[in-house]
Amino acid sequence: MHALLELDCIPSGMELFPAANETQWDLIKRVIDDCDYYLLILGGRYGSIGPEGISYTEMEYNYALSVGKPTIAFLHKSPGKIESDRCEQLEEGRRKLKAFREIVETKLCKHWVSADELGSVVSRSLVQLIKREPEIGWVRANELADRDATVELLKLRRQVDELKKELATARTSAPKGTENLAQGEDNHLIQYTFRTKSRYSYLDDSTNWEDSFQASWNDIFSCISPLMIHEASNPQIESTLGSFSKERNIDQLREDGRIRNQIGNVGLLDFKIKPDNFQTIIVQMRALGLITKSEKTRSVKDTETYWTLTPYGDNIMTRLRAIRRDHKEESEVDIKKENDDAI
């Protein structure tokens, strides 16, 4: 009892309760239900026998296990050395005690010899049990939340639930008000610049060019979105859009008579999207709820702007970039299965 009280626990031993207007067993079960942990101490006695022919101690232990109560047992290490007047006098009692000990030893248990050792092993074991399986415990009545605090708590819980629903919706739905914005397969005119230089000249004979092409918003977002799975800076996104412009137009530009006739066999270099066009793309992606500014903390010297995907943007990127099954292969698999079934 002292060991438990020193751990700020409230012991609820059966011997502490007076007779009540309910049956003894009903009282025992109610006390066990109200407790956080069940501790069994076995010495040399089996205990008083209940209606079912087993002791109330064994009935308590079995009930605690059946209701999932965190349980630990403390068994006397050498029951044969206990004084005779503290042991079972009848052979049947000793036999039942031995059988009960064997059952208990299959579960979590500790051993003790003296009262001092029992207090010590209870303290250490209960601390570990509380850490491993924390329960709700008890509080003083004046520490309970008052009515206003309870109402506020319920209000906050409802707000949390609503925010969780909104977050789940945000992962799969576009923000409100984006219905009239250009998106998806709608085309956008991308303006870019590049430079040509003769492959066989050592002179600075490069020429700057401007051109434009149409690309869908899905294609643009599919190009830049993997950069922002974590975060990407403006220069990184601009560079990727420049590469996108080159990839889309390189074959056509190589056949462009203006370029070939001016210098002959030329190299196409330094593809860059125009700054105004880049800003338009960033604003549009942000307005569509696909990207947002990164809030990651960085050094004061780093003044660059960084962007990251929103949950909705991540969902759209996955849909655009994930590799779909080949319908032809799928059909062949289905046909083969049908043929196998027929065979």
Concise overview:
This protein has helices at 2-6, 24-34, 56-66, 91-104, 115-132, 147-170, 217-224, 234-254, 257-263, 275-287, 311-321, 327-342, and strands at 38-42, 71-76, 109-112, 187-198, 207-216, 232-233, 266-273, 291-293, 306-309.
Description:
With 343 residues, the chain is an alpha/beta fold. The protein has two domains: 140 residues, Rossmann fold (3-Layer(aba) Sandwich); 151 residues, Orthogonal Bundle (Arc Repressor Mutant, subunit A), CATH 1.10.10. Helices cover 46% and strands 16% of the residues. The strands form three sheets. Strands 1-2-3 form a three-stranded parallel β-sheet, with helices on both faces. Strand 2, helix 4 and strand 3 form a beta-alpha-beta unit. Helix 2 crosses helix 3. The longest helix has 24 residues. The protein is elongated.
